[in-house]
Design a protein that fits this description.
Layout (H helix, E strand, L loop, with lengths): L1 H52 L4 H67 L19 H27 L1
Helix pairs in contact: 2-3
Length: about 170
Amino acid sequence: DRLKGYLHWNIYTQYDKRLTETFKHLDNLNTDIERMQKIYNSFVRTRQAATQSYEGYDNQIRRLRNKTQNAMKQVKVLMARQGHMLEVMAVNELVKRREKLAQEQIKARFAMAESYDRATMEKSKPAPKPEGDKATSSQPEASQTPVEKPVQDEVSETQDKQAPQEEQSGQ
């Protein structure tokens, strides 16, 4: 009973104080709500202004989008052409290199043949003989000339073939 009495007395005596605090808190909440409402209204106005500021740009954006798509198509075509052009240039360069290597190979063959001819000519020439040794000099000289003559003909043919090629490589 005492507890009930204390609670009733406390409720009735402090009611005014609690009511006053409740209204103060309610005023504080109303102030916060007004502030939040102002912020929300400002947001709505900004959103509307942004939406309205983009009005009228639809045609320009559409036109630029089409222009960009056309430019991309042209870029694809030009890239294909450029790739083809690079391929043709590379093939031409490789063909030139192949021809040059073939010419160098021909020159190397003639040089090797000429070197071989010189070596055979040196072997076919008689070694200097002492004058007192007649046994080795009794061989007829006619057998030496047929060997030397074809070698000399090959050397002159080699030189004749090299001259036009040197003129071409000089150009």
